[in-house]
Amino acid sequence: MTSPEREPHTTEDPTGSPVGEEPTAGQPRRSGLRNPERAVRGLGAGTLSLEALVLLLAIQPIRVVGGDLGGAAIGAVIALAVAAVLLAGMMRRPWAWNAGTVLQGLLLLGGLLHWSLLGLGIIFALVWAYALHVRRVILG
Predict the structure, then answer these.
(1) pTM value?
(2) Cα–Cα distance between 99 and 45 in angstroms, integer?
(3) Of 5, 13, 28, 50, which has the fewest beta carbons less than 10 angstroms from its beta carbon?
(4) Cα separation of 78 and 10, whole Å?
């Protein structure tokens, strides 16, 4: 017993064009997300929130293992973490992505206070660069 043959069908996206085809020159490229702006804001906010958490949790290990982490360096780490949390909450603002980039530069400059802050700055600058790349790909 075999099943009856069915005609192959093509799946269409909401714009009416078959899935898998490249958009024409007049149509914007669709990302497949219901709300791409919201998804990108979530990526940015999540990245900054994770950065704030790591910065705050890194204070004690840096003090114990890494040598002398002075009061200025601890203050800088706390200030950067607070700034990251504030920026995570303001990702709807058009300037928030630029401010996040400045925050990564400030963390890199924190390497002048302690070498481990430079290491964290490099890691999070790369993560932020990837988030910017994803934003550019999704939003165009």
Answers:
(1) 0.75
(2) 12
(3) 5
(4) 54
